[in-house]
Amino acid sequence: MTISKTLPISRLPLAGVVLLWTVGYAAGLHYFFKLNWGTAVTDSAIFNLLTVSAVVLMNTVIGYLPRTGIFQMTLGVAILFAFLSQWLAQQATIQLIIEPDYLAFLNQSMPVRWAIGFIALISIGIALIFYSRWRELAESKARETETQLIARDAELHKLQLQLQPHFLFNSLNSINALILVKPDDARTMVQQLSDFLRLTISRADEPWITLAQELAYLETYLSIEKVRFGHRLEIQVHVSEEIKSVVIPTLILQPLLENAIKFGLYGTTGKITIQLLAKQHGSDMLIEISNPYDADMQPASGSGFGLSGLQRRLYLLYARNDLLTTNRTAQTFTVNLIIPPRT
Do 238 and 211 meet the contact criterion of CB atoms below 8 Å apart? Predict the structure, then answer.
């Protein structure tokens, strides 16, 4: 059983319907059945109990909807209201109008009046059933959509805050190693790591930022990595000024750079150069990150969370799986990221 809210009925349109029904019904009695205007209007006004029955039926059907037997219930209520409204109207007109010709007309027309009342009420009831079911489906769909949006936002929030565990562990290990031999560098790295984590958490409530803000965030991240790897790590950033104001998802580039550093430096002892290029590509923005690559020196476990997590974020934001692509050659690994304009 489902208890629904009462259907709101505007008094002004209802009054207009009652008035039109009264006038039209009275005019029909006057012109087609030759009743005088007083009798016709009285008959029409009294038999407007059918309209009252329709209103009661509307509130009954909308306010109380069983899971089963709804059509049987509506049929029974319509029969009951049609009979009661027409019977009460008949008794009232008999008391108010005592003209013999009218009373004979009333007795002859009662079966037709009952039939019309029943058909009208059952039609209204069936229409209300379909309306109530449509409203339930619409509300259910709205709740489902809202639930999906909440779940999507929660997953995006989780992915946005996701950090590679090895980054924190390696940073802390680097700090530990620097404490004895280079205490000043250790303090600097602690401060940089603190700033990086603070920015990460503060950006959690900012799903969208400009490319310029993202690049500033990357500088904090890279400053930590440069303390760890020293002269071995060089980052070249090529971004035109006109696209720095483009709005992009927050923290979307850091996983790509982290991935490039991890797999570019893995198993090497020499200096490497990672390049980041951002440019306009039609209505989209294209970001390309490339790093040296040696297939023989890569870990068997793959690229970890970075690329897969970013792929998931992009799908949740844009509902597309073609925005992140990779390309391997004998010496280079390249990630191409397409960021569509925000709609």
Answer: no
